[in-house]
Amino acid sequence: MRRELFEPEHEAFRETVRTFVNKELVPHVEEWEAAGVVSRESWLAAGAQGLLGFAVDEQYGGGGVDDFRFNVVFDEELVGAGISGFGSPLHNDIIAPYLIRLATDEQKQRWLPGFCSGELITAIAMTEPGAGSDLQGIRTTAVRDGDDFVLNGQKTFISNGILADLVIVVARTDPDAGYEGISLLVVERGMPGFERGRNLDKIGQKSQDTAELFFNDVRVPARNLLGEEGQGFIYLMQNLPQERLSIAVASAATAEKVLAITKDYCRDRTAFGRPIGKFQHIRFELAEMATEVEIGRVFTDRCVMDHVRGELDNEHASMAKWWLSELNKRVVDRCLQLHGGYGYMTEYPVAKAYLDSRIQTIYGGTTEIMKEVIGRSMGF
Questions:
Q1: What is the pLDDT of residues 121-174, one digit of tens each?
Q2: Cα(344)–Cα(211) distance, rounded to whole angstroms?
Q3: If residue 159 lies in a helix (H) or strand (E), which one and from where to where?
Q4: Using CA atoms, how far apart are residues 155 and 194, in angstroms rounded to an integer?
Q5: Options 24, 76, 243, 285, the catalytic residue
Q6: What is the β-pairing status of strands 122-125 and 166-172?
């Protein structure tokens, strides 16, 4: 079905992004996969091309356009090229709204120019060893001491954790206030007591640096408080729909890409004297996946358009996140099966997609948590 999501300016932007991805990212994939991290030069190149901070005001070097469809285009082109380690979706889709909506004028002047140029790479630290989807269970503390907060705790599974220059840390500033005792503090590279652990060894997304972070009596200036003290949990809830939509967008694009690859494989691969796609069982498998992927695409695009209009709620963002990520997992697994032994070889795109996209049903809130969110919204 013809997509009705994009205007001519988005399609023109897609050509710009595709040229950038093919020139600046694709040639380095194997190098970055081996190193476990992308180069800082790639971030600077993205900034120079105007691909960071689309929604940031022009006075800070951003695009000045609050239209999530530009984010979608960039995210889809990364998926199409098999780029899973370049952390721009985290930077643009997840971190940017916090800085745009919550930062003071002074904070914006300090951070946003570097955010847009690629000189300041960002991360957000929510998850802890004992607290994942249950954000109210975090134990990292920040105690006010004069003009500083003294930060102590540990975070894990933090994307961009090795490269990040700015980390939005979710911390408990009032241990007795429940969710109203959570605040957001921006920790900057080089602050004494802020240490990074190892670059975690994952089964997929090898070039996406994912780290443990440690905070030992880190004195964070009170001027680095993001938003109001005690409102951190509310801010997280307000920004989660866009994060979850971003994951749904990547999931839909991955399922489409892998299905297209598999259709070609089933035309070219022969068994018993004919292409394997001619066998009824395989035809039915492809037909089922094609239908499901089409349904997923229509729903994802509708959610994106609702988000652009300011109408996407947490319920539908959660629906999109769990259903598209589970669809992607199912489609990629079935496509790998249709590739037979070749699908198990990492040189084949379907194998890399299998490893890279498995995390999508987990981060941003697990499938189980998404269903809980939806169930509660129904009054149960």
A1: 999 999 999 877 777 789 999 999 999 999 999 999 999 999 999 999 999 999
A2: 28
A3: strand 148-159
A4: 11
A5: 243
A6: parallel
Q: Is 6 left (phi over 0), alpha (psi -120 to 50) or beta?
A: beta
- 124 CB-near residues (< 8 Å, 6+ apart): 90, 94, 95, 98, 158, 167, 168, 170
- The CA distance from 151 to 139, in Å, is 11
- Secondary structure letter of residue 198 according to DSSP: E
Q: At what angle are helices 232-268 and 349-356 packed, to 10 degrees?
A: 160
Sign of the alpha-carbon torsion through 359, 365, 369, 373: negative
- In angstroms, the Cα distances linking 303 to 23, 79, 309 are 31, 19, 10
The whole model's pTM is what?
A: 0.96
Pair of tokens at residue 236: 């997280």
In this structure, are strands 148-159 and 210-221 parallel, antiparallel, or unpaired? antiparallel
Looking at residue 340, what DSSP letter applies? G
Residue-wise pLDDT for 23-55, tens only, equals 999 999 999 999 999 999 999 999 999 999 999
- 38, 21 in Cβ contact below 8 A? no
Active site residue 31: no
Q: What is the mean pLDDT of the chain?
A: 96
Residue at 25: amino acid letter: L
DSSP 282: H
